[in-house]
Amino acid sequence: MTEPTASAPPGLAVEHLSFGYGAELVLRDVTFSVEKRRFCALLGPNGAGKTSLFALLTRLAMPRAGRIGIDGLDLAGAPRAALSRMGIVFQQSTLDLDLSVRSNLSYYAALRGLYGRDAARRIDAALDRLGLRDRAGVKARELNGGHRRRTEIARALMHGPQLLLLDEPTVGLDPESRAEITRHVHALCETEGITVFWATHLVDEVAPGDDLVILHQGRVLARGVAAEVAGDRPLEAVFLDMTARSA
Amino acid sequence: MRAYLVALVAIVARELLRFVAQRGRFLSALVRPLIWLLVFAAGFRSALGLSIIPPYATYIPYEVYIVPGLCGMIQLFNGMQSSLSLVYDREMGSMRLLLTSPLPRWWLLFSKLLAGAVVSILQVYAFLGVAALFGIDLPLWGYLSALPVLLLTGLMLGALGLALSSGIRQLENFAGVMNFVIFPAFFLSSALYPLWKMQESSQLLYRLCTLNPFTHAVEAIRFALYGQANLAALGWTIAALAVFVALALLGYTPMRQPSRGLSRRR
């Protein structure tokens, strides 16, 4: 985690972001940035403002103050170009359970402006990635929780985004699938060279080498490489201390 | 430009696929108006004397009178149901998926509206088909001339639902929508009785009926089913469509100081 430099814009830059409902402020002066090709975890207890931050990053809501940069593009100034560089996995599943895996993928492709042979190729590639090429016709309902998440991640990557946003993607999964998804996305970050921004309230999903932003009650309490934030103590203890102290 | 059309077709196709997959929804959409037609109308026909009013050229039995109103009811229910599923989170995830597409929001919302209208039109024709089996048929060309009007009314009632879904959180369940939207819209209209009947009972209620966009939707459908254009009703329906679309667009534009919104629903 470094401050933005003039040469290469960060994959994600958040500057002095504030947001609230009525008089209640949910995010206060949130600032951080994620360098390209880095995995950054947004760690915060429930109610820290993680989902609100995601709503701002995906332009489902607008900040009261502050600015969001996606790969050097201003989200408020060029929302459509910025959105087209993002892949998003929401906390709540957005698969159509009654439709087949292939229909889910092709619907997404169309929403992202992909069509024809190009879309077909990307859909097949996503199915291969999932190992579901032979079972593309099964309804999404028939997949287990881990596989549904994998499908959503593969879908979010179909249009070749530079930035992958995931809002607590392991919620509701068993420990094994949770570890598997966490490993999978870490690997994606390395092999595909995409920037990953991963929200969670679970410390064990953060690897020592990841960038880390700790959010609590709408404020950034710490940012930096996870191992450095933790120092010589376990990250869990540091996180609990921080959130308890400022509560 | 092609990307716009591809997205539109995909959104409509998805709605159709979902509609086919959810057989229960189709069945209840069909049974509801049939109960009105075959039971309510049968009991009611002797109680209500109808005079000859346009577009009818002759005396008509009561069950023929209420067919256009029931077509409107199907579309009203469809519009409210799709909006409720949005308010109720069942569909909120898919709405997020839609709104984070890089295409312009107005186009995405229009596609969503069109998709809902297409589904409601299928329901209407299924209903008209069953009604015809029971001997309640219309002039043949009426089935065709009603199509563009059903598209318009379907869009208008869908836009009403979309506007409600974006602006109102208080409609927490379907009972609330039934009480505060569907029943008033349905009963304060010309769906079940001609408005001159209402005028004999209460001038105030009559005024309310004439202001109700649903009345104009029903009248537009009624005339279209007999191959005629009721320009006043069509004009009112188009005006209502414009207002509801504007409200829906406003509601789904991200705001700096939301009182509620997509961001808050989890």
Keywords:
heterodimer, A: 247 residues, alpha/beta, Rossmann fold, four-stranded antiparallel beta sheet, 10 strands, 25% strand, globular, B: 266 residues, mainly alpha, 12 helices, disordered C terminus, nucleotide-binding (chain A), AAA+_ATPase (chain A), ABC_transporter-like_ATP-bd (chain A), ATP-binding cassette domain-containing protein (chain A), nodulation (chain A)
Description of the structure:
The complex is a heterodimer of chains A (247) and B (266). Chain A is built from 8 helices and 10 strands. Chain A folds into 2 domains: 172 residues, Rossmann fold; 65 residues, no CATH class. In chain A, β9 and β10 form a beta hairpin. In chain A, α4 runs antiparallel to α5. Chain A is globular. Chain A is an alpha/beta fold. In chain A, the strands form 2 sheets. Chain A has a 6-stranded mixed sheet with strand order 6-7-8-3-9-10, sandwiched between helices. The two termini of chain A are 26 Å apart. Helices cover 74% and strands 0% of the residues of chain B. In chain B, α4 crosses α6. Chain B is mainly α. Chain B is built from 12 helices and no strands. Chain B has one domain. The C terminus of chain B is likely disordered. Chain B is globular. The chains are: A alpha/beta (247), B mainly alpha (266). Chains A and B meet through α1, α2 and α3 of A and α1 and α5 of B.
